[in-house]
Amino acid sequence: xxxxxxxxxxxxxxxxxxxxxxxxxxxxxxxxxxxxxxxxxxxxxxxxxxxxxxxxxxxxxxxxxxxxxxxxxxxxxxxxxxxxxxxxxxxxxxxxxxxxxxxxxxxxxxxxxxxxxxxxxxxxxxxxxxxxxxxxxxxxxxxxxxxxxxxxxxxxxxxxxxxxxxxxxxxxxxxxxxxxxxxxxxxxxxxxxxxxxxxxxxxxxxxxxxxxxxxxxxxxxxxxxxxxxxxxxxxxxxxxxxxxxxxxxxxxxxxxxxxxxxxxxxxxxxxxxxxxxxxxxxxxxxxxxxxxxxxxxxxxxxxxxxxxxxxxxxxxxxxxxxxxxxxxxxxxxxxxxxxxxxxxxxxxxxxxxxxxxxxxxxxxxxxxxxxxxxxxxxxxxxxxx
Amino acid sequence: xxxxxxxxxxxxxxxxxxxxxxxxxxxxxxxxxxxxxxxxxxxxxxxxxxxxxxxxxxxxxxxxxxxxxxxxxxxxxxxxxxxxxxxxxxxxxxxxxxxxxxxxxxxxxxxxxxxxxxxxxxxxxxxxxxxxxxxxxxxxxxxxxxxxxxxxxxxxxxxxxxxxxxxxxxxxxxxxxxxxxxxxxxxxxxxxxxxxxxxxxxxxxxxxxxxxxxxxxxxxxxxxxxxxxxxxxxxxxxxxxxxxxxxxxxxxxxxxxxxxxxxxxxxxxxxxxxxxxxxxxxxxxxxxxxxxxxxxxxxxxxxxxxxxxxxxxxxxxxxxxxxxxxxxxxxxxxxxxxxxxxxxxxxxxxxxxxxxxxxxxxxxxxxxxxxxxxxxxxxxxxxxxxxxxxxxxxxxxxxxxxxxxxxxxxxxxxxxxxxxxxxxxxxxxxxxxxxxxxxxxxxxxxxxxxxxxxxxxxxxxxxxxxxxxxxxxxxxxxxxxxxxxxxxxxxxxxxxxxxxxxxxxxxxxxxxxxxxxxxxxxxxxxxxxxxxxxxxxxxxxxxxxxxxxxxxxxxxxxxxxxxxxxxxxxxxxxxxxxxxxxxxxxxxxxxxxxxxxxxx
Lengths: 385, 600
Known about the structure:
heterodimer; A: 385 residues; mainly alpha; 19 helices; B: 600 residues; five-stranded parallel sheet; 16 helices
């Protein structure tokens, strides 16, 4: 099969954040210092090379960008200041837009105006709908129960609808990712049972993010700090998602506190707050390599998350302190942020929640398949010595 | 002839102010219009043609740094306007060297000449200052030695100033030269001896230039000669003083891998072949004559004078040659290679001294051994002649070179000397594995590519990929890298790592440049006048550059440049036209001369 070259690929990637790819002169320093590069997945240099050569189709099928957690060692080490870490980050953005079949992700990553307009439109419609629903059926002064402004049973149905839409897009995109990487990108025969024996990789990496912990530069950060905060942010997020999708009735009841449910909510909020503050602070201070360059979507990501967390906590407190009217208004604002956030998820950075553990899973399957084939040829990939 | 001057300058660079040149141009005779055109984009042809027609211009001058770029547009416009396209003339500031202090005057003169239709080099001929026939050479390395011999052999007086105790420079420290694997000392020492014995060369070791005044052809230079404390003429290098000297310090000549005494001779073939005392470590001098002094008592020739003082010399010379050479980048600041932390990580010059037959191990390549320092009670690593040879060695290229954090430029010699090291290790140590980590193999010279191929065929593992990590594993070091051509990550356990350290201008370069009024480039090397046309001249007339101090170069290039400099100097001395420089002629002189030519 002929390899297609896209000479404008690097220019295209500039919009996704990679500006200095052309500077790279292939010394391999980055691959040497990368804690995750191994004999099968060698990066970031190889990805830089593919980029320089404009092999768009080939990059589409690689898993390497997802194996990088952006510790920034490669960028620190790079003699050309070509910023391989940022390139890998940009490639992840590009891959997200590639897995997405609607083209919306590409639009949002390339244009801030489009992204913010889309968010505002969805927020506007959500707000209008909720206000219309609230005022037509209930009283603004009632938060929960009979005649509530936004009854929890309605919110539950509403959440499930939004979640369903999200899930459909996400699954379709994940399926595309599987096709690109495992069908188009794996040139060895993959036995079906490898998918079963390696399935544990998905939950393992999803819940522990162990590879992020391996990434730490201990001389620079307080030990495991970004990993813990990232994990806290993610677990808080997932917990909150489960609470909202499944236990919304209990969550919204009150004003007394239902400890067996709410304690999870508090923990999740704490994790979200800590993570958000840490990442905003670092992006503002630019104190580590990986926070030096912030793509526009990064800012939209953290700002929207901050709004959601703050309004969520605020409506909870207002409800409990006996100001249900204000609690309802804040709740509407909260949902106005949540709905675009959730609907945007398959088209944004946030989708790495699914893609990254999936990539770990796929990469592990591919690795085993390659090893199996090489065992057949009795030719293990070995370190020279 | 009705003339229009058009300035096409993208931006004002340092020293050039387009507006004031435009004002000057407007006052020139026959100039009808002066316009400053904003570029880019390229000026519009129709607009230009309209301007030409409106002012009925017969000649158009494009002025700017690179006016040639805009010439096609102006020529088309001129043709469109019905003028003579061959009367589109260029006033190029860049080409005629309008930069530095008198950039404005030069630019004005260039514009004036072009407006009059006189080629600038025809009007601006440097005047003939009388030339003093003696030459000062700063730096006694191979470049200085070569230039000194060439000039002195032509019968002209040379002062050779060297700041250490002997001439020879870095080349004297080397074992072999690439690619011929000739013995470096065998090439250098005869030249050194000739310099020492030459009646036309006045050798000033342990000396520094501290002030320089004057103009091309007659410079007055003040030189401080530090006390040597040993009479050069009387000393017979019997070594008795060194035997009794109690002070031990690291040897500069051995790149710090061995020790020397406070009274020492840098190396046995030193020129002048006499001992000297290092005033920074000698007990007698540091204690103001209260302690020690045994060497003076021991000396059978009584040639040691511990009370000698520094001398200030005033000399007058016509030309000055800069041959100050280079230093090595401080590699301990590049942390990932562990230099200074792991004992067997060496810089290239340390390895060079280790493998040199006159070095501390007699040329045996060994790993460092441990010993107890009795004074401090700590363990220290040193090269013992009985040490174990390394089983495997990694050579890492481009350490600090081609790196935006340290030296953005290529140091040019590292690839070749690393290949030479690979050969020497293979030759001297049986069953050794040598790994070369390189980014790009720069084998650019005569016979270099063949040399590189030969080294590969000798069984050196040549890894295309730079190593960025050296760590300890047991008593060996682990060097990690990416073998790009074989598409694999590699890890080698090695006993010794040799870093091909990047080169930087030598320490006094900045002060010397300031003292003499010479420009330096962004990397700190002396600037030549024109990289292609005048690679040996500098901005100041009568001052030349030779060797590494201009830019990194290998020995053949250094010697060639030194000889070229000598030719330039001798031309000045023998042509009878005297010496001059563009910087010495003023704007009005050029104008007057141009007018004279213009009339004819």
